[in-house]
Specification:
single chain; alpha/beta; 6-stranded mixed beta sheet; 3-stranded mixed beta sheet; globular; binds guanosine-5'-triphosphate; binds magnesium ion
């Protein structure tokens, strides 16, 4: 009697890896992360430079685990905060098994010539190009010359037109990642969604509402710190005290608004979203404070959660 070869007896090898989502600001990286996970964990806004930190999103499938890493948009920094954001991307690229470069399908392929994307070209891991927002291209044949131009750049293993907002093409992207994932054990337990602490998620949710309800410089001059977060009572009410830091007293007045109206809108919208996410009532005690020029102040940046971790 012959024994079958070992390979046919054992289960297919488990695969795992880190995959960074990178690209210029506002191209839809965080929207794509949320779509890939089927759940919103990263904040999104119509304004550029929304994401400031590295955000992991863990996708566990039968036989594979993909750790997606959302990153700030690559840009030419003009403040210490901007430098931190760009350094965060460089660090996220250090030990990845794959990169998804996100770009808008409507943009000219020459946008990738920008120097701010340099850190990307030093990466040895395979790069997939996700051409996002295809829903904005009514005549899909218009994509052909664009795709052709990217192919000629010779930098990408695959080009995938998709819509992070509506979902088209996103499964194909995931399949493409899976086929390139190296063998390896899972990094996290199967039910883990992210490794960011709850306080980060809460602060980010508040920050998203600042992007939504304030304009011009205000969302950029704002940072949020959760001072206290506790579960109280049998109903599991979540009690949060958070502070919005701005750079000047005039900005504080704007964030509060006449009769507190703006702060109230921010607080209500954040609370609703947090209640939906945590599934318990949330009490949100929201304050505004001034921390002069925090975006230029290394010490303040650290205190507000903008520090590189290994
Ligand atoms: N029409 C359309 N809009 C999209 C799509 N994906 C994202 N957007 C929009 O693009 C804007 C930016 O989305 P984000 O996900 O915040 O982009 P980002 O790349 O993470 O931006 P930064 O964090 O600032 O670098 C938001 O208004 C999204 O709704 C898409 O597939 N189609
Ligand atoms: Mg983002």
């Amino acid at each position: 009697m012959t024994t079958p070869p070992e390979a046919s007896m054992s289960a297919p090898e488990h695969r795992s890896g880190f995959v960074a989502l990178v690209g210029r600001p506002n191209v839809g990286k965080s929207t794509l992360l949320n779509r890939l996970l089927g759940q919103k964990i990263a904040i999104v806004s119509s304004k550029p430079q929304t994401t400031r930190n590295r955000i992991t999103g863990i996708r566990t499938l039968p036989g594979a685990q993909i750790v997606y890493v959302d990153t700030p948009g690559l840009h030419h920094p003009r403040s210490r905060l901007g430098e931190f954001m760009v350094a965060t991307v460089a660090q996220a690229l250090e030990a990845v098994d794959g990169v998804v470069l996100v770009e808008e399908a409507t943009a000219s392929p020459t946008v990738l010539d920008d120097e701010s994307l340099e850190p990307l070209w030093r990466v040895s891991a395979p790069i997939l190009l996700a051409l996002n927002k295809v829903d904005r291209v009514p005549d899909k044949s218009a994509l052909l010359p664009v795709l052709d131009a990217y192919v000629r750049q010779g930098r990408f293993q695959e080009l995938i037109p998709l819509s992070a907002l509506h979902g088209d093409g996103v499964e194909r992207l995931e399949q493409s990642i899976l086929t390139r994932l190296p063998p390896g054990p899972p990094f996290y337990p199967a039910d883990t969604l992210t490794d960011q602490p709850e306080t980060f998620f809460v602060a980010e949710t508040i920050r998203e509402k600042l992007f939504l309800f304030t304009r011009q410089e205000i969302p950029y001059a704002s940072a949020v710190r959760v001072e206290e977060l506790e579960d109280r009572g049998p109903a599991g009410r979540l009690s949060v005290r958070a502070v919005i830091f701005v750079e000047q007293p005039s900005q504080k007045a704007i964030v509060i608004g006449a009769g507190g109206a703006v702060l109230k809108r921010i607080g209500q919208a954040a609370r609703r979203e947090l209640e939906a996410f945590f599934g318990v009532p949330v009490y949100l005690d929201l304050w505004v404070d001034v921390r002069r020029h925090w975006r230029r102040d290394v010490q303040a940046l650290r205190e507000l959660g903008y520090r590189l971790t290994s």
